[in-house]
Structure prediction request, 252 residues.
Amino acid sequence: MFLDMGFNTTDPYRHRAFGLAVPTAFGLSLSGKLEEADLQSRTLTISRGMAILLVVSYLAFILFQLRTHQGIYDAIFVEDEYRDENRPVALRMRRLTATEVAVALVISIGLIILISFILDDQISYLVLERHVSEAFVGLFLVPIVEKTAEHLGTISEANNNQMSIALSHVLGGTIQTALLSGPLIVLVGWGIDKPMGLDFNLFDMVVLMLAVLAVGNFLRDQTSTYLQGVLSIILYVAIGVAALYYPNLGRG
Prediction:
């Protein structure tokens, strides 16, 4: 496990949550104390600065993982591969060529783009026509649909006792979204003069922090049991129920 090698997998996960919380904390702490336009301008500036810092953090994480400390990950993942009961079968399977991999990636990216457009239309329909809570769609529904394949793969890896690989897939995708995808949207919006910020509402931020703390506590003892899995699912369902009844109040 990562923790056995002296590296805590939740560190980047926890730090990105704290970074995302800065613009929200700034905006909430000064709400009602400054004029709305001035507060939004200051918060947007902080969001853009934080976006740059988060992207730099992601690049540092990639450098750590792929260049300077790749030996840590290699040793852990190799150990996990030997735990896989299906390893003999996997070794006998034919490997894809570079051309086949490239074609598969192009097709996959094309399908993802198509599905994203379809999903975006359905989100607008759910929120505007069916009056489903934006919080429920963003915190519960979209992540389940978007990460279905990744979730199934992670379940299979965990079932084969490959917990380090499973955790790397779960936390790695989350870190990428928070440290790269989200901040890039802010920076692209900055470039095209669109006010995209990282100032979320209080409910979203509290839920994020609670989830980070819960995951960190589950991983701290370096064990994996069905009880921890059940409690994690219950926590996620509880967040979904709260999000479902959260009204569409817009920003703030």
